[in-house]
Structure formats: C-alpha cells, structure tokens
Amino acid sequence: MDKGFPRRIICLTEETTETLYLLGEQERIVGVSGYTVRPPEARQKPRVSAFINAKFDKILALEPDLVFAFSDLQADIAAELIRRGVTVFTFNQRSVTAIMEMILVIGRIVGVAEKAERLIATLQREMDAIAESASRFSYRPRVLFEEWYDPLISGIRWVDELLEVAGGDSVFPELRTQQSAKDRIVNPAEVIARDPQVIIGSWCGRQVKKNLIRAREGWTNISAVRDDQLYEVKSTYILQPGPAALTEGLRQLHAILAHVVGHEIDPALLPKERADARLGLAA
C-alpha cells in the first residue's frame, strides 16, 4: 500500500466497508460494525461496534490509523475515540449526490481517486438505465415508504430520491429533507388521505408484517391495501446510505414498481439478491 495513506481502517457502518471492498482496498480494513452483512466476506473482519455504541478497548487494540463513522448518531463514539487519540472521519450523507461524494472522498483518502471516479460512473450508468426503464411506465404509482411502523416513519431523502429514479412518487415528499427520524413521523390518518397505490416497508432490520399494515384503522380504504400492493425491501439493501442502496436497493424498488404497472424489465436491471418473493424474483 502507498505510504502516506491510511493502512489500518475501522468502519463503524456498513457503507464505508462496502465502498472499500468495491474499490479493491479491503485489506486496509481491520475492524467493522457488527451489523455488517455486505459483502459477506467482510463479516470475517473483527467486529467492534453496534450502531450507537462501540468496544473502545477492542478498537484501540487494533491500532487503527483512521476510523470512519456516520452522522450525529455516532457523535459520542467519535468524540470518545478522538479523546483517546484516534483519527476519526465522520460522514453525514443523506442524498444520492452525497452518497456519490462519500465514495469519492473515501477514494481520495486511501489514494485511489481514479478507482472511485470509475465506480461512481458505473453507479450513475445503472441509475440512468433504471430511470430510462421507468420512463416507459404507463403511470407513476404513488408510494408510501415505511422506514418504521410504530410510530409510522416515512423514507429519508436518499430513499425518496431512489423511489423517483425507480419510477414512483413519494406521498410525503415534503418530509424527505428531515434528517431525524422523529421529524418524519406521519399520522396514519394522513396516509389514508394521500392514498398510496403501493406501500413498501423496510423496518430497520425487522421483518415487515403485512398483516399489521392491513389491520391499521381505516387503511382498508387505501388503494395499496385494497389491491394488495404491499412489499418489503430489506433494510440492508436500502437504508444504508452507500453502494447497496444505489444498486440492489434501487433494483428492488424498480422491480416492485414495474410489477405493479405491468412493465417488463430488462434482465440486466433485475435484482441480483433476495427480493420480495411476491415478485417471483427471490434468489
């Protein structure tokens, strides 16, 4: 590895881990989050943290020269590591553009900016291909994306943006810029008024219970519930603000919406991993 660039990196969230693997720089990673599932081989790395807590002694024992963290939710972890003499770089990407910028920054930090630029170009080409496919939909379904079920929380900005690329329109677009989940809590009665044609759940690591969605008071009158257009995208594919969301997450959103409108997808754009079994696309 080149001198002057970090050689021992710990990633406290999955998206930075996946980015380093996609850049071919996985040998620099010496520790990962316990929630890491992408890529599968990353789980062989020492696990040093959850999301809002970390094993500081284990991190220090690994002698990192850099730790990647994410958002205000890991601010306390970052502060403690800094007090213990560790260099910490904290990202806060909340949009598709910011995810791309995160990838480029990581590439620059480890000295492979050109690789990062090529990766970004590849991601953008796939997004453009899906947007072109979606442009041929007979209509754009109204979509409720559920990030959590009680209280009901709508999708964060990058999810809403990817929904639009995939061919749908969010029923709560005005909430997308709210970074905090508590600021994206929606009244179930307002969902009835906005009448989504599709409901997609991704309940932060919990299995989506479609019977629970159907049982909400007054929701039998919602088009998505009446027409049984209820789907799930696993959180690892869509709620990590990194490559997974821009690739597999976007493919699964597009497959769901294409299924709803009766549009045939180019096989090259189909999900590559386990999707909602209702689509007939499960791996």
How would you describe this protein?
With 283 residues, the protein is of the alpha/beta class. It folds into two domains: 9-123, Rossmann fold, CATH 3.40.50.1980; 140-279, Nitrogenase molybdenum iron protein domain (Rossmann fold). It is built from eleven helices and ten strands. It has helices at residues 14-22, 56-61, 75-83, 96-109, 113-134, 157-166, 188-194, 210-215, 223-226, 235-238, 243-261, and strands spanning 9-11, 29-33, 47-49, 66-70, 88-91, 142-149, 152-154, 169-170, 198-201, 230-232. A five-stranded parallel beta sheet has the order 3-2-1-4-5, with helices on both faces. Strands 6, 7, 8, 9 and 10 form a five-stranded mixed beta sheet that branches. Strand 6 (142-149) and strand 7 (152-154) form a beta hairpin. It is globular. It starts with 8 loop residues before the first strand and ends in a 22-residue tail after the last helix.
